[in-house]
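Q: Sequence in, structure out?
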Amino acid sequence: MTVYALETEGLTKEFAGFSAVSDVALRVKRHTIHALIGPNGAGKTTCFNLLTKFLEPTRGTIRYEGHDITGARAADIARLGLVRSFQISAVFPKFTALENVRVALQRGRGASFDFWRSDRLLRHYDERARALLDDVGLDGWAERSAGEMPYGRKRALEIATTLALDPQMLLLDEPMAGMGHEDIDRIAALIKRVAAGRTVLMVEHNLNVVASLCDVITVLTRGRILAEGDYAAVSSNPAVQEAYLGAQIAGDGHG
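A: Exactly. Output:
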């Protein structure tokens, strides 16, 4: 029996009569990297917001590890181990990289975030924080202010803070958005590395980016699933080629 980490049935979101997401049945196998891709405006981020309960579905169900989470709150879903990143980098710009990861590690204290405590009392988080920075290739950046870091490094820091929450499943919203080829290659390798033993669902609009990274690709267009399969199956699908106007498949890998 196939074990799915995340499943949806009939997932739909309507805004004033407009269906941004319509009747989506998504099945993400445990311990795989699964991409949700599509042209701009396809409904990818809306779908992500529904899965993590930043939006409430108009109808449909969401199950995580077999449990119905359709009515759960965003914070409760994160506590279950389903943790997302955002398309816009979400770090504290005036904190160092080490301090950013250390804040995320404080979740283990429950509701207590010790911004007001002395730095000395928080040092027991440092070893784990530095290990996470090493994991994402930021071993030399611990004392750098997040706001001064290059864009690609900042996205790696965001992944480190996400990993600090000890997720079972990572939802990454366009982790390569706005990056050049060098940063794209670095973040792709990072995602592949941190996916070991975890499930990853990532939103992406560039088919070339996910070609060698993802086990399964689901293509959305106009809020509906257009195609699904591995890269070879999806990229050769005439409907997918038409939706992308050939640009993503035959193009140079940008955007």
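The longest strand covers residues 4-15.
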